[in-house]
Backbone:
């Protein structure tokens, strides 16, 4: 099964790298046409979607909170990670 340990990383840069890799894995699985591959894709998509939406939401809210405090650098990092989460879905 798919491991999300890297996505749960504490550093933004590492998390973004793992999210980009996850995006490529999802796209590869989605493009497979054989029944066993489609079964694997369908079995993981629901849980991945829920997980990625939660991750996106937390980074987006964190970015907005940092932006309201005037911390533009941290807000941009959070927003970039939120964007990568959204592209992975």
Residues:
């Amino acid at each position: 099964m798919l491991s999300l340990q890297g996505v749960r990383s504490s550093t933004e840069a590492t998390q973004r790298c793992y999210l980009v890799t996850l995006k490529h894995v999802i796209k590869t699985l989605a493009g497979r046409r054989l029944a066993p591959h489609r079964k694997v894709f369908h079995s993981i998509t629901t849980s991945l979607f829920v997980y990625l939406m939660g991750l996106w939401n937390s980074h987006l809210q964190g970015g907005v909170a940092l932006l309201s405090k005037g911390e533009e650098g941290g807000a941009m990092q959070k927003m970039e990670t939120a964007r990568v989460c959204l592209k992975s879905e």
Remarks:
- The CA atoms of residues 30 and 36 lie 12 Å apart.
- The chain has one domain: 12-88.
- The two ends are 18 Å apart (CA to CA).
- The chain has a mean pLDDT of 82.
